[in-house]
Design brief:
- Helices cover about 40% and strands about 10% of the residues.
- By secondary structure, the chain is an alpha/beta fold.
- The chain has a single domain, classed as Alpha/Beta hydrolase fold, catalytic domain (Rossmann fold), CATH 3.40.50.1820.
- Strands 1-2-3 form a three-stranded parallel sheet, sandwiched between helices.
- The chain is flat and about 35 Å long.
Length: about 130
Amino acid sequence: MACFSRYARTADVRTRPLLRAAYPLAQSGIENGSSRAHVNHGSWSLSTHKIRGRILCFFGERDGYIPPEQVARIRQELERHKIRHEVVVYPNVGHGFFCDERPDYNESAASDAWRRVKELFRDELR
């Protein structure tokens, strides 16, 4: 799920006006241009203003792919454009915290993230 979200969900929430909610996971490279989101849709921060739905972003504090500066930039851009959002950074958690097939899976963070996703969908997709 994380890989699919990384490339598709961020682009979708920016380019599909009927998409009302999204939870992109593992957004590696979104600010430095190394992801498909950048290649196909431009830098994440340059197109944040296109987001129409509510977005919930999860990050691991110990993520080796997404430095804290990127998370701060994402948060800043979402706030600047008044996008309904929540940015959650899980302490002492790595990049693959949501995927139970990865060595850095974290059950507590994954459970909390999944609870938040279900709440997001419940609230936004009625």
